[in-house]
Amino acid sequence: GQNIDQPTEMTATEGAIVQINCTYQTSGFNGLFWYQQHAGEAPTFLSYNVLDGLEEKGRFSSFLSRSKGYSYLLLKELQMKDSASYLCAVRDSNYQLIWGAGTKLIIKP
Amino acid sequence: IAGITQAPTSQILAAGRRMTLRCTQDMRHNAMYWYRQDLGLGLRLIHYSNTAGTTGKGEVPDGYSVSRANTDDFPLTLASAVPSQTSVYFCASSKAGGSYNEQFFGPGTRLTVL
User: Average of pLDDT values for B41-46?
Assistant: First the structure.
């Protein structure tokens, strides 16, 4: 079966750095996405990785290791507005997205 | 219209009733999707359409139907609602279905079936 694993919840302090991990087992791999979802709102796109390595975009970076079936999202200089759920999704061999349940990130002052 | 709109925003429905959730996008995206999101679970694909005139089944299609008569609209119909269909429903679109392209999501419809 196909499976995406992420921690259910994480807590971090404003101004700090947090790493959210995602491991996956899917039928094929055609890219990995990270989305942010604030409570009661729609998911919004953050990053995309298809090759191994780190993709940096401002305060957010995403890393991929295809051989390990592993990705992480790194958030630096945390702000209160970063309190949200972070969703990991893998595009499988049918080019459909398989989604993790999301990681709820709580930022404390 | 800017992006994707969904209607209604929320709905309480009696079991057994028929309901159509509407989704319209103005980005001229070829591909559109319907997901449901339930607490503790990832987004699950119900149906999708890679281009106008074609549709496909996702992970959880039972009890739902879709149509794609044109590029902009992708309605989702529950023929006879059941309580297990209580969920938040998101419509999404992307430029193409088969290559990298991020999906853009509508604001969602919160559906409660009693």
Answer: 93
